[in-house]
Design goal:
CATH superfamily of the largest domain: Vaccinia Virus protein VP39
CATH class of the largest domain: Alpha Beta
Number of helices: 7
Structural class: alpha/beta
Helix content: 25-40%
CATH topology of the largest domain: Rossmann fold
Largest sheet: 7 strands, mixed
Radius of gyration: 18 Å
CATH architecture of the largest domain: 3-Layer(aba) Sandwich
Strand content: 25-35%
Strand order of the largest sheet: 3-2-1-4-5-11-10
Shape: globular
Distance between the termini: 36 Å
């Protein structure tokens, strides 16, 4: 089963403890401190949480994702809140857009879904979608997180309407996540859905080399929400095109 085919409807609920509010404030401070304009794209937007948060703050947001179920959910949540956000399907590895953006954000591990060989081409395409001096800010799950905290462990989340089970397995320099959802129907019975997710382990030096080869200036690399890189679950790259 394709990644996020069924998880899309439950993604934000199951991630409600990830600190979306604090994460949004961190991104806003980055954009403001760098003098970024107001027209932005969230690449790998999923169900559009960050798009909606930035739209409420006056940013002119678009969202792109490869997953149609995620985009369907994003459009539904956007319409429910009466926000004006454009969503479209796109593969991060082959991104092309009809307009230039002041900034492109890709939070929450989107780049980990790209194999190492695809990084340079993806970054080159992303740079071509930015206006002159545009900002590209993204994070990856750190090698520490994937190797030491995710691989070969089991995670579960039991809610009233859905139960989530994830069994990761390290395979070389990637981690395959077998995800199972048990979703309660109207009759009280649970339906089972299975998905497979594959995330690649990216070393900081390899990501930096691919960014530089694509023409980006790396302004900073830091841990999640600006913490120290060592031992952080995420590495955040802030770049200028």
């Amino acid at each position: 089963m394709n990644a996020y085919e069924h998880l899309a409807d439950w993604f934000e609920l199951l991630n409600d403890d990830c600190g979306y509010g604090e994460w949004t404030e961190y991104l806003l401070l980055k954009l403001e401190s760098l003098g970024a304009g107001k027209r932005g794209l969230e690449l790998g937007c999923g169900s559009g949480k960050f798009c909606r948060e930035l739209s409420r703050r006056g940013y002119l947001m678009s969202g792109a994702d490869i997953s149609l179920p995620m985009l369907t959910r994003a459009r539904y949540l956007c319409d429910r809140e009466k926000l004006r956000i454009s969503f479209f399907q796109a593969d991060a590895a082959h991104l092309k857009t009809p307009e230039k953006y002041d900034f492109i954000l890709s939070p929450n591990d989107c780049i980990n879904y790209l194999p190492p060989a695809a990084l340079h081409g993806a970054f080159r395409n992303i740079r071509s979608c930015l206006g002159k001096g545009g900002i590209f800010c993204f994070d990856i799950s750190s090698p520490y997180k994937l190797r030491e905290k995710v691989a070969n462990t089991v995670s579960a989340d039991d809610r009233e309407e859905v139960t989530y089970l994830c069994i990761p397995e390290k395979k070389g320099e990637s981690v395959e996540l077998s995800v199972t959802l048990f979703v309660r129907g109207r009759d009280g019975r649970y339906d089972r859905f299975d998905e497979r997710h594959l995330q690649y382990i990216h070393e900081e030096e390899n990501v930096s080399a691919a960014l530089k080869a694509a023409g980006f200036e790396i302004l900073s690399v830091e841990g999640h929400l600006g913490e120290k890189k060592e031992g952080s679950d995420r590495l955040v790259f802030v770049c200028r095109g």
